[in-house]
Amino acid sequence: MVPPGGYYYAEVIRGVQDAARPLGVRVVLAVSGESLSENQEQVRRLVAGGIDGLLLMLHPGLRPVDEAEQWLSGLEVPAVLVERRAGIKAGRLEQVASDHAYGAALAVRHLAGLGHDRVALVARVESPNTAHLSAGYAEAVESMGLRPGPEYRIVTGADAAPADGRFDEVIRAVEAGEVRAALVHNDIDAIALVGILRARGLRVPEDLALVTYDDEVAELSETPLTAVAPPKQAVGAWALDLAVRRLSRPDTPQAEILLRPELRVRASCGARHRAST
């Protein structure tokens, strides 16, 4: 089950398919709803239809959290939560996700290594990954003794301001020389920011060294963007593997797996090196 819309999940699904094919496992795709009741009904229908296991990439806004986790812990078939993290109330649920906190720290360390002692974080309010990115960002800033940089939260939903307005605070800080390096989540926002900066007479990386988080389309930016790339296909493959293991060996200890992203260095941060992990 995947949420409606968004390109993030295509690579995860591809990883599931590639892992399933040699095992002779049939994968059935379903689209999750926004409410808990919609998800419960979707799962009920899938189980009634005879599925053996579930890989769940649930809607990030699923509420209430406690009730959702209680439901997840009592599912009738083995289930793996994919690119989501659940608390101890869903302790019977196996989990596979990218370590987004590590990915954010990777970006901060890279920018610090280029001489930036203050790094901003620009992240989407509605993203389920923002909390993890913020935690990894803050930990890296503290551990490296950097000056705490500003954190900007941008809204990109249907009621959001146009892109120019969305990045107003960021643009003002770059124009004033207060922000010279930033980690931006995600690629689309980073590419939009590069265009707005150029329209204002500002350049990447000369005026702003920029690392994006995602690496779906980062290389297609006018200035190819250095990017943190979550291992999406590997997440899908591990999730499928966990589900198959659970079905064939029910007594296997339950797993919670975090896979580390890698950094792919291009032109937007002002340095060219090999990818690092």
Structural class assignment: alpha/beta
| Beta strands, count | 10
Helix content: 25-40%
Radius of gyration: 20 Å
Could you state the order of secondary-structure elements as H and E?
A: HHEHEEHEHEHHEHEEHEE
Report on the structure:
Residues 273-277 have low confidence and may be disordered. The chain has 277 residues and is an alpha/beta fold. It contains nine helices and ten strands. Helices cover 38% and strands 15% of the residues. Helix 1 crosses helix 9 (232-248). The strands form two sheets. A six-stranded mixed sheet has the order 5-4-6-7-8-10, with helices on both faces. A four-stranded parallel sheet has the order 1-2-3-9, covered by helices on one side.
Which helices and strands, and how do they pair?
Layout: H1 8-20, H2 36-48, E1 54-56, H3 65-73, E2 79-82, E3 94-98, H4 100-113, E4 120-124, H5 130-143, E5 151-154, H6 163-166, H7 168-175, E6 181-185, H8 187-199, E7 209-213, E8 226-229, H9 232-248, E9 256-259, E10 262-264
Helix pairs in contact: 1-9, 4-5
Entry summary:
The chain has 277 residues and is an alpha/beta fold. Helices cover 38% and strands 15% of the residues.
Keywords, separated by commas or semicolons:
277 residues; alpha/beta; disordered C terminus
